Amino acid sequence: MIYSFKGYIPVVHPSSFVHPLAAVTGNVIIGKNCYIGPGAAIRGDWGEIVLEDGVNVQENCTVHMFPGKSIVLKESAHVGHGAVIHGANLGRNCLIGMNTVIMDDAEIGDECIVGAMSFVKAKTIFPKRSLIVGNPAKIIKEVSDEMIHWKTKGTQLYQQLPADCFESLQEVEPLTEIPKDRPTQEAFYKTLEEFKENR
């Protein structure tokens, strides 16, 4: 669901995957190897939205802005399920937790991690490598090398997902029973705690 608005047509690199149930409108530029999940709305009607290479905007996220503003989600920014980015800029390789809300003119620095369900007030600026949680969101500590390594590995899964979707995603009728030879999916990623234990 890609829509022009007042003469602006979204630009999507061919390597990026926009799910058919997502909506991308107007002045939106999507770089290489980006993933836009079903239910996501990226609305470039009142300003420009730029997603640099390797960004993912997961299911049911909203990206929008106050009129006249333009925003950038920098390379490898990772926006978790249900998050709202309203007129905020996201730094390179940051992680925005599920159901987080980030308001107008906020700045999330490179390699920050924002915890799930946090609320970042308008005009709040967080320096790089901040671990941010709460309502209103506050820095609780610095993001460690171990944490950012774990985050980067998770984002790489989403950077591979567009190619996987182009190769294998298709609309089908559901089965009526479980086949006997249904394969088991491998566990190819670990929680942060499991990741720490295995290092």
Automatic annotation (TrEMBL):
Pfam families linked: Hexapep
Name of the molecule in the record: Phenylacetic acid degradation protein PaaY
Native source organism of the sequence: Aquimarina litoralis
